[in-house]
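Renewal narrative, Specific Aim 1. Our central claim is that a sequence can be written position by position from structural information alone. The example that follows is taken directly from our test logs and has not been curated for this report. It begins with the structure tokens describing the chain, in the order in which they were read.
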């Protein structure tokens, strides 16, 4: 087992990783920007190192500073967390070349799944269903027209190196295609320094379903069921739940087996999530996230598996301590992302948290890095907490969620908590009658 792990991240996920390390008896090193010197995990870690100014480019994306901090503190492994460098193939290679262990998949798998076109071709070859679209990069507008005419409108133009909705544009007709193509390429170039675009058929009423997997280096692969992430805005998830109201036990078993067999064929090692669009009983692969997911918590509470602890143990060379037969989905869980944003305009709301109270009680978990008088900076992701609810049934889960969200107090800044309070009382949400487009279609009426 590792002796000391450097946590190359910030916020609630850094706290989560630190806690898993403590359970395993591993010392921790926190790295932080200047503005983050008072973060919770920085205070709790055994050691901390400032790696740069407030800008993420100069701190949390500063590879040389992170590697220097690891050498300075004698760390033997680096956990990249979520976002930042977590899916950066070059960083993973440099970590290995420095004699350290990258707590994540191999650089080869990061590269394979980091390019969405390569990922789509790879999974199609090993039996995972994909959405109809272009076979590769769309060269120009004429090429885009030809592909769109072939698959039929509406179509979705997507950045090959993208993620999180960046570089994605919908065209519902030939008249919209040229502008959508130009905008997608421009956005992709600005965000990823790669303007490669591909096209897929745009599904009109799908659910966003993802499958959590864990794989060790001995060929053991297990899935922990699905998560429904359909309540989202601009492709950013706001609520996740498991199991999905829309997926039958038969469909769950079927897609679980397909995913496990595919991951085994890939010889993938680590934790990961395969994301699908689900419509009319069919799954269509979107992408594979080769890292820990923000919403991993709900899979943990319904299965009893500590995903972060297993991730660290696998990176240290240990085998999975359980098999698929030992995984049982118990009850229902939901996660509500509390962001420092205005609940209607979604404008960022940095500032000082003047008063704070997190809900508690049986089946209620809050993952967060903030505290009273903490100042939310304007430089990073706006999420300040995740409220996780676990109950025997979905209805009970929603009732607990109402109580927990009503009990939550965050004064001094605006948060999305008010939006969540409305959502858990909405009839469509209660009935499970929604798709990935539901929130944007209904936001004004809320």
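The sequence written for that structure reads:
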């Amino acid at each position: 087992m590792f002796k000391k792990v450097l946590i190359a991240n910030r916020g609630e996920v850094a706290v989560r990783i630190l806690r898993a390390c403590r359970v395993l008896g591993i010392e921790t090193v926190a790295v932080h920007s200047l503005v983050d010197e008072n973060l919770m995990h920085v205070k709790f870690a055994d050691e901390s190192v400032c790696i740069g100014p407030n800008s993420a480019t100069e701190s949390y994306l500063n590879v040389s500073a992170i590697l220097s901090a690891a050498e300075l503190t004698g760390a033997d492994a680096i956990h990249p967390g979520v976002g930042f460098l977590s899916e950066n193939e070059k960083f993973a290679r440099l970590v290995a070349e420095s004699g350290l262990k990258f707590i994540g998949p191999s650089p080869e798998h990061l590269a394979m799944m980091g390019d969405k076109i390569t990922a789509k071709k790879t999974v199609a070859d090993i039996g995972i269903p994909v959405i109809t679209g272009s076979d590769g990069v769309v060269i120009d507008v004429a090429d885009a027209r030809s592909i769109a005419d072939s698959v039929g409108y509406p179509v979705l133009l997507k950045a090959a190196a993208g993620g999180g909705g960046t570089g994605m544009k919908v065209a519902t007709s030939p008249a919209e295609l040229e502008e959508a193509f130009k905008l997608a390429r421009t956005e992709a170039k600005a965000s990823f320094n790669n303007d490669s675009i591909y096209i897929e058929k745009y599904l009109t009423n799908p659910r966003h379903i993802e499958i959590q997997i864990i794989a060790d280096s001995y060929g053991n692969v297990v899935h922990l069921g699905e998560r429904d992430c359909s309540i989202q805005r601009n492709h950013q998830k706001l609520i996740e739940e498991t199991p999905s109201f829309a997926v039958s036990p038969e469909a769950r078993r079927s897609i679980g087996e397909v995913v496990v067999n595919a991951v085994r064929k890939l010889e993938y090692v680590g934790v990961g999530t395969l994301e699908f669009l689900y419509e009319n009983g069919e799954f269509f692969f979107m992408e594979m996230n080769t890292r820990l997911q923000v919403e991993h918590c709900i899979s943990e509470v319904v299965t009893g598996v500590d995903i972060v602890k297993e991730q660290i143990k696998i990176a240290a060379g240990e085998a999975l301590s359980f098999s698929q037969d030992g995984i049982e989905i118990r009850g229902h869980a939901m996660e509500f992302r509390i962001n420092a944003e205005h609940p209607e305009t979604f404008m960022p709301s940095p500032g000082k948290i003047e008063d704070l109270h997190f809900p508690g009680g049986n089946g209620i978990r809050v993952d967060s890095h903030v505290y009273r008088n903490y100042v939310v900076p304007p430089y990073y992701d706006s999420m300040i907490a995740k409220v996780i609810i676990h109950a025997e049934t979905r209805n009970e889960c929603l009732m607990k969620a109402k109580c927990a969200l009503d009990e939550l107090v965050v004064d001094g800044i605006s948060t999305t908590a008010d939006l969540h309070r409305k959502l858990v009382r909405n009839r469509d949400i209660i009935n499970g009658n929604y798709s990935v487009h539901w929130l944007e279609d209904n936001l004004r009426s809320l």
